[in-house]
Amino acid sequence: MRAARFYDRGDIRIDEIPEPEVKPGEVGIDVAWCGICGSDLHEYLEGPLFVPPAGHPHPISGESAPVTLGHEFSGVVSSLGEGVDDLQVGQHVVVEPYIIHDDVDTGPESRDYHLSRELGFIGLSGCGGGLGEKVSVKRRWVHPIRNDVPLDEAALIEPLSVAYHAVDRSGAKAGDFVLVGGAGPIGSLTAAVLKARGATVAVTELSELRRQRVLDTGVADHVFDPTKVDVAEEVRRLTGGRGADAAVEATSAQPVLDTLLNALRPQGVLQVVAIWTKRASIDLFQVVMKEIEVRGSIAYVNTHPSTIQLVESGAIDLKPFITGRIGLDDLIDKGFETLIHHNETAVKILVSPSGEGL
After folding, report:
1. Separation of CA 265 from chain center
2. According to the model, what pLDDT value does residue 10 have?
3. Residue 78 Cα to chain centre, angstroms
4. Which end of the chain has fewer CB atoms within 10 angstroms, the N or the C?
5. Which part of the chain is the Enoyl reductase (ER) domain (predicted)?
6. Could you tell me if 173 and 221 lie in one domain?
7. What global pTM score does this model have?
């Protein structure tokens, strides 16, 4: 089969590799669509980061570069390993792409398995990936979805689950005023989750195209251009001088972090979901004097079922966030390069490893 594999920084190749063996307790999946994630771009530009470098195998997967990329994917069950009897061949599924030690509690009550020691990700740390035509995944990490949910939209459930977990961590609830920093993929999807929960959502974003998109999709009530207005003052004006109840940082940009902190009300929550690869500075005087809570969130933990329910119920429409569909051969030129150099034109670019659906 064909797969996009990461060798080193700036070196991703389309290789012919053997199809994966479906072992006991695993589910064989024909990948339908896979999204290109910001973390994939970080690997390409700055890596290896999550990818184990050549000669330094990941402690759980035992693999090192080259590894197949892709962790935001949907597909169709193609085969069932011994002992898997609660799924059917032909069923639509998405994957929670974790690689976790077997002794970690990943049961329905766990709230911290995503923080366990030496955790890795399918599509970054080994065990195949969604930028290959097929993958085999442990049953625990395979989530069925209704077959009437289009598979291209289903590929966005993984990043939507990132947003869902961030909103959970923020404590935002119906009736709250929440400011989202950035209208890229995670910022936009976070706004969508917030709207589905009944919050009033404001977004600050430099790109005119991205500002218009969150307005057009209905996930934002207010959109600000920070070069034209004082965002914190606008938030206070809209909240009767109070400020935002919560703010979500989804850019890893220092000016955005500063703006969000300024816009928060006393005892508000600053939620950071962006992956910062450089140190940030924070005005601790404001944190102390306003008793701000600063929280982080990474990935997701037992949130895929709830996220899937949001999509299946129609509370969130994922179709508007798909801005491109390509095949493996166009991965770099029309995928990575577009997202690196023209990211304001795209939210989520999906890849069909087999070429079906293009």
Report:
1. 28
2. 96
3. 25
4. C
5. 10-351
6. yes
7. 0.95
